Amino acid sequence: MSPSLGYILLSMPRKVFPGLKYDQFAADTDRKALEALERVPLLPQVVKKFHEVGWDRWVYCWNMATSVRCGPKQYPTLYRIMRECCEVLDMPEPELYLTSNPFPNAFAGGVERPYITVRSGMVDALNDDQLYHLIGHELGHIKSGHLLYHTIGRLLIPLLELIGRRTFGVGDALGMGLALAFLEWSRQSELSADRAGLLCTQEFEISASANLKLCSGPTRFNHEASVDAFLDQSRAYQDISGLDAVGKALVFVFYGAQTTHPMPVHRTKELEKWYLDGGYQRVMNEALKELN
Predict the structure, then answer these.
(1) Residue 106 phi/psi, 5° resolution?
(2) Euclidean distance between CA atoms 119 and 76, whole angstroms
(3) 69-138-146-213 Cα dihedral, nearest 10 degrees
(4) Contact 185, 152 (CB under 8 A)
(5) pTM higher than 0.85, yes or no?
(6) Domain boundaries in the chain?
(7) pLDDT mean for each 10 residues of the chain (292 residues)
(8) CA dist 206 → 91, 197, 212 (Å)
């Protein structure tokens, strides 16, 4: 029986993972895509220009100017959830912001001063338990050292223009190659971050329900949503064959290859695979050894 998406488990004691390392929850595809990205010859020039321009400071200031910083006296529930997630993942607290935007999303930024920004639409879409997955996911990006390349990726086209390169139909092979490598790594990094989200919820069904909400958005029929049906859908999509498999490949070529995030049903299936293959339990067992 699939749990209701309105259930509350905030009283559930959460295990902590002292000394947790990124390697313990990193996806192999994330590592391989990062290696491929760092082999692109143009990357050092882009990183150098990013630091020269000071874009990290500019983006940080823009976020602070357009969002509300959370703390013990400002949206304390969101702040408490983040603090608990930081304790679980054994990492310092970043800054946490809430911004007005009806489209559900959240992101981590700030290479020198890490922060997480959650959109108001996301708070409306998720219940408190599902927010543990969301915030744990963003903390996973920070703990994994994703922020430099994620921030550069969001600014890649103007950076390429600053060093005299062009891409996406009007540029050279190096610029195009770097852009595609960034996008592939970005998609794979999301799989690692989802695992960090699961380490914070410590209930697979909660993490899966958070991904369901990201896919469906907030609606007045939320009470009719089924995690089990969504997981069945993700498995069917993964196992698709015949002419449908060709359609799936075309969707990736014409749409998926140009996105920074994997398809929601795909990332849910990948998280389920890590959970069922024992990856989650291995991290749990290692934590118990540390505590003993």
Answers:
(1) -155, 160
(2) 16
(3) -130
(4) no
(5) yes
(6) 22-291
(7) 43 83 95 95 93 93 97 98 97 98 94 96 94 98 96 88 68 81 94 97 96 89 93 84 54 56 87 96 84 63
(8) 22, 10, 10
